[in-house]
Amino acid sequence: MPRDSQILTPYLHVRLNARTARCFGDHATYNLDCTQEVPLNAIMFTSKTEGDNKEMTQEVPSVLDAPVSVLEDGSLDPVYEGKAKVLNKAIQDIGMGKYQWQLFIVIGFGWSMDNLWPIVTSLIFTPIRNEFNPTRAPFLTLAQNIGLLFGAVFWGFGCDIFGRRWAFNLTIGITAIFGMAAAGSPNFAAIGIFAALWSVGVGGNLPVDSAIFLEFLPGTHQYLLTILSIFWSLAQVFATLVAWPLLGNMSCQQIDTECTKSKNMGWRYFMIVMGGVALIMFFFRFVLFTLYESPKFLMGKGKDEEAVRVVHEVARRNGRTTTLSLEDLKVCESLALPGSSTSQQVTATATVKRKLQKLNTSHVKALFATKKLAFSTSIITVVWAFIGLGFPLYNAFLPFIQATRGASFGESSTYLTYRNTLIIAVLGVPGCLLGGLLVETPRVGRKGTLAGSTILTGVFLFGSTTALNSNSLLGWNCAYNFMSNIMYAVLYAYTPETFVTKDRGTGNAITASANRIFGIMAPIVAMFANLETSAPVYVSGALFIAAGLLVLILPFESRGKASM
């Protein structure tokens, strides 16, 4: 048997045998006879046998081709981290198969819900305002945004406590129930409460679904997380396609002096349909598709045997096999730091603490460790904040703006308003696809595409204020939606690339929080700026242009470069 070799890492100094070596990644090196260091990614190590000067070589299973974890070496205790690397390697060896493709579809449901329901709120805003005539109609959007923020926080942390499966199924279920219940709202306060409640479910879709998808996805196919954005765009098209006949034909007209419930049933039927669609998606997720609990979540709870069983089940569903065994995980327990437990703490409190590690001061400080990093982090956060206010300030009230501007042009047909909204939505789909192509274009890259699309988004908003008829207003809004979809496609890709992996969770949390908090401010600004004037449009356009100009001074271009 080969003698134990010594492994040096940035955070511990222990003696490991060949089997234990698989628990390490790029930073591990072997010290052979204390004379030379060999990187682990060399895959082979040399050791002398006892009582013999003959050297022998033994292969060490490598995890370097496994997906890079969001939390890298040192962010978690070495036992948990070592086991996570072993599980990542096992998923990589199984590869992309039937289970992951089925998961891609049901995860796409969550992506679509994330955009569909804010669009729903936007579409029903005008008929609800006409029927209930509230003093502060934008409170509906405010209630929605508060629910979205609460949902993102609750489900994001909660799925690490009670598991991915419950959060995965309940988010869409909650959305469906409160969405359909909202159809019976007797007054504006009731619909506002229901909007907040269904948004609690919606707010958890992306945090939970992205975690699930990545934890089952081989590293070679992580680009599929970007492709999921097509569900996001198609959801807007679907919602407006359904709204066109229902809201267009069964809603009060802008010129009506009195709007009664019987004349304004369209939005109620629309809510039932949207809630019904969410219920069907819930049925597919909960009944027709079997979601396995995340292996890494099970491992983190001390359920190594169940984690191994899930990996084998995924392999079976894909028609493949895996060599992963319980011993492969247990051997990583020898990596425990002196004086610590040999296994990962598995209490709910410990789990929450591990989650909070992404937001501790050391990770925040790392984002500002140098002047260049501090500048980059600060600017990208401000960009997210400006877009977080500018986008909902206009987009959430787009149908209302279409209707009121159309009335001023003498074209007040509600049917025409929702037809135009559908046309605008369709233009968002090619925008997402074009954004994916432009980011890889030489001399343009991420920064050029993001800056250009963001500035043009603002320019087209300013242009919409010059429209003299409905057709010209439609043209400006189509250009706006096309460019804003390019902007978001690039923003979601560029932002995490500018953060070092071990601090990426904290960086994403900071930018996302800035976006949501400023999003809550949008309806407040709308209330005081008066939606029937061009003031909100000017504010929104100015924010987009300012954000685009800030992108130009970002210090990093990530095109063609591997993220750290």
From TrEMBL:
InterPro entries: MFS (IPR011701), MFS_dom (IPR020846), MFS_trans_sf (IPR036259). Keywords: Membrane, Sugar transport, Transmembrane, Transmembrane helix, Transport. It is found in: Membrane. GO terms for cellular component: membrane. Residues 103-559 form the Major facilitator superfamily (MFS) profile domain. Gene3D superfamilies: MFS general substrate transporter like domains. The chain crosses the membrane at residues 103-125, 137-159, 166-183, 189-216, 223-247, 267-292, 373-397, 417-438, 450-468, 474-494, 514-531, 537-556. The keyword Iron does not apply. It comes from the Eukaryota. Its main location: membrane. Signal peptide: none annotated. One of its GO terms (molecular function) is transmembrane transporter activity. It holds the Pfam family MFS_1. It is a multi-pass membrane protein. Belongs to the major facilitator superfamily. This is Similar to sugar transporter.
